[in-house]
Amino acid sequence: MRIGLYPGTFDPITYGHTDIIRRSCSLVDRLVIGVAINRDKGPLFTLEERVAMIEAECKSMVEETGTEIVVHPFENLLIDCARDVGASVIVRGLRAVADFEYEFQMVGMNRALDASVETVFLMADARRQAIASRLVKEIARLGGDVSKFVPPAVKDALVARYNR
Fold first, then answer.
1. Residue 146: per-residue pLDDT
2. Is 72 a catalytic residue?
3. Which of 26, 37, 102, 136 is close enough to 75 for a disulfide, judged by CB 3.0 to 4.6 Å?
4. Would residue 15 count as lying in a domain?
């Protein structure tokens, strides 16, 4: 069984993320979505909220693709998380050249830690390249419409969070 790990903070999950998830399903038998518990980033949504949003958005993808999708919170090194879930592949999405520079460094470090885990990059769909969770949150905070960037339930969660 080929197991892939798609890590991120997913704060919140966007259409960019769901595009990468859907496309990753054609590459692996099981896709583990690693939800980083990155306390330094100060996420808007709790870990439990992020996990629930991801599970809700992936439910139909499991049925469409036949790929098992598992949501797995983690707080250790990415390479250790990959080992923990049995992943032989780490999936990363790229939007722009700036993403590549950072990801290039991460691949080098991960390969130094465990050369048996490969990293695969998927280019973001052209319609999704500008989407970043950080920008989506800023638009929502300022009262803008984020419906082009996130699923309806995530939009509702953002509106509810900022209307407190």
1. 96
2. no
3. 37
4. yes
Confidence of residue 62 (pLDDT cuts 50, 70, 90): very high
User: What are 21's two structure tokens?
Assistant: 């998830």
**pTM (predicted TM-score):** 0.93
Q: Could you tell me the sign of the dihedral formed by the alpha carbons of 38, 97, 80, 65, in that order?
A: positive
CATH number of the CATH domain containing 24: 3.40.50.620
- Which of 17, 92, 137, 155 does the annotation list as catalytic? 17
Q: Which of 23, 30, 83, 95 is catalytic?
A: 95
d(Cα 7, Cα 33) in Å, to the nearest integer? 6
Neighbours of 30 (CB within 10 A): 17
Count: domains in the chain:
1
Query: For 99-154, how does the pLDDT look when each residue is reduced to its tens digit (9 = 90+)?
Result: 788 898 999 999 999 999 999 999 888 787 778 899 999 999 999 999 999 999 99
The pLDDT of residue 46: 95
Q: How far apart are CA 151 and CA 100, in angstroms?
A: 26
Instruction: Write out the residue range of the structural domain in which residue 12 sits.
Output: 3-128
Give the residue carrying structure tokens 């500008």. Answer: 130
Known catalytic membership, residue 147:
no
